Amino acid sequence: MSRAFVKDDDGGSIEPLPDRPVSPHPNIVTAEGLALIDRNLADLQERHAAALQAEDRAAQAAIARDLRYWSARRASAQVVKPPNTPATVAFGTTVTIERDDGRQQTWRIVGEDEADPAHGTLSYVSPVARALMGKQIGDVVRAGNSDVAIVGIS
Predict the structure, then answer these.
(1) How far apart are CA 147 and CA 122, in angstroms?
(2) Which three-class secondary structure string do you get for 5-39?
(3) What proportions of the chain, in percent to the nearest 5, are helix, strand and coil?
(4) Which of 20, 82, 114, 144 has the CB geometry, 3.0–4.6 Å to 69, for a possible disulfide?
(5) Whole-structure pTM value
């Protein structure tokens, strides 16, 4: 049989996966965002140890890539506390908007890695958050395809 059709297990290692892209924006985070990074790192370290124990080289490569990403994010994280009594929308504040149809939406402005719009958090670099930053209750801003009024800041 030709060697071209035989799986050759030379015990070599899996090539490292390319690094996850890291945002060019400053890595500002809330206290909760920093805790999220720390939880991710702890979980990945446990998973990496398990992959080493199981000699699962593919899992080791994938986990190592994520460890590099989260380690870089942890090293560059800058915790920013929200203002105590916010008069304007700022990082860490919670803002409520009202759309033309009367629907209200509430988001907290947070760091990139902790953002999850479906769960009420927006990245500070998202277009909607950038439109809201520095605005006050009563201001009208463009959010998506419509204008919205800011009705609450906390």
Answers:
(1) 18
(2) HCCCCCCCCCCCCCCCCCCCCCCEECHHHHHHHHH
(3) 40, 20, 40
(4) 20
(5) 0.82
